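Late entry, written up from scratch paper. The run itself happened at the end of the previous shift, but nothing got recorded in the book at the time, so transcribing now.
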Amino acid sequence: MQLRYLTKNLEQQVTQRTKELQSSQMQLIQSEKMSALGNLVAGVAHEINNPIGFVHGNVNHIEGYSKDLLGLIKLYQQCFPQPGKEIEAETEAIDLEYLQEDLPKLINSTQEGIKRIRNISTSLRTFSRADSEHPTEFNIHDGLDSTILILKHRLKADENRPVIEVICNYGSIPQVECYAGQLNQVFMNLLANAIDALEESNRGKSFEDIQANPNIITIITEFSQDNYSAIIRIIDNGIGMSDEVKGKVFDHLFTTKAVGKGTGLGLAIARQIIVEKHHGSIDINSTEGEGTEFVITIPVRNRVSFDIL
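Output as recorded:
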């Protein structure tokens, strides 16, 4: 009898340890994937930044040269209103009047494109920011903006639905002492889940139906009343969750997604990063059929800083 009990107890322990080992292995794989993604993104940002620097410098010179040339042409036209048939024919052939009007617009458009590319490069570097051994000061809003940019391709309109609107209501909060790369990973998980929930809620709906009740993700940040913590709320009007799902959503390996679309680790890792690494909290408010709100609260000064002082 005692042997049977011991055998059963041993089997339970082996099963429990096996689950823990599998969970740890999956977390390690997920962390390695995020690390690899960060390195890839940082590399892409670096490769973009170098050539765009040359283009930016050259287009500024082109702008100056074109102004000089257009000014010279205008002066020629004033001094020689009748330049001769050959020049008049060539002027008409190249449509000089249109060229003088359009060239500055083309240069301005190019400069705007360069500005956008440089902003993208900056956002990529922000998202892929490597964490040091100790927490460092970080602008939470930069992290959120860079994550939104990374996910922008999933927000765009397609033939099945209009654009997913992201509303950012940023409050006045100081820089937060944190592990920026890991915090960006949390933002990525939560925003990707919000997009998934919205896409799930769109099933069976026409483009017009979705347009009448548009997909919206709202991000709200604020400083706590005690001036101790930063609060980040990420809200969607997707399918929401049942009480049963809410109770399990932070469990390791739990997922409601189809096979191959979810590991069940995203929210578990997010909770680990917020609670264990940043000594904060992550809570969920959700109503089935209405939407979900994740509330992250993290101290502005990390506990590691207090330990060092």
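The first strand starts at residue 136 and ends at 138.
(Scratch paper discarded after transcription.)
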